[in-house]
Amino acid sequence: MQRPRGYRERLNVPLHPESRRLLEELQALARPSISAVTLEEARGWLMPWAGPLEEVGRVLDEQCTGPAGPISIRRYHPLDDSTQPRHLLVFFHGGGWVIGSIETHDDLCRRIANACAAVVVSVDYRLAPEAPYPAAVDDCLAALEWAVGCREDWGVTGITGVAGDSAGGNLAAVVAQRACDRGTPALDYQLLLYPVTDCDLDSGSYDAFSEGYGLTREAMGWFWQQYLDGQDGTQPGASPLRAESLAGLPPTCVVTAEFDTLRDEGNAYARRLEAAGVSVNWECVPGLLHGFLLHGDRFDEVDEVLTRIGQHLHRLSG
Question: Is the pTM of this model over 0.90?
């Protein structure tokens, strides 16, 4: 099996200069452990994009019906509204199922819409610990079903997929598994950006980057505790890597980052998909940290990665 594009195994590839600067800035903040602050303080650590936003064709805030009440949605249409076919990507934001929102991922969703010629539907699912597992999964599945029902109204003629980063990548993978098991709604694609795929915190990348690289082992343990609220994290609905079979899942794009605690579990999910016969476009981006796609102002790699994702979608829709 070929290694993913950009992957380096057992080579001392240095941190990207902007990765190093970003870590220095985080260190200067001298933040305490996330488990030592209030939920409000923790949620304030992941802030909405402060720079100029990527221009898109349209942005609409709306709601769909969820299992526990209305779910807030932000819908993005790409800048070039004449491009055909128009795809649909239902996006679930990261933040450890505890922090993050449609606001924190506004610019990333705009970039994805333009790069992928897609209507992007960003879902403000319920957060833990107020709403532990499986509340977020149920909200995301409800939003996907609603969005699929709106395809024609939105001018979507191409691929329907789910997408997400980090914990949102976990939700995208779980929703795709559920849709595959149920046979509805029909999915053509899943986009998993440095996804959480397993509750095990003892992978090689966890050992290598447990401290000092942004996302720590301690923080991920705390996120899992909030999300599960005492439930079994090894069940496939929480840890999609542990599903008995991944056969039948739609074509998938997996993006991981070299200096990321979640690198190995994302790569492992890509390998399992390939072994199950799923078409996988997979790359591990060298020199970068977890969450790099939220820093389009700092990393040229953001637009480069999103361009490759858009090209992959174009090939699939061919």
Answer: yes
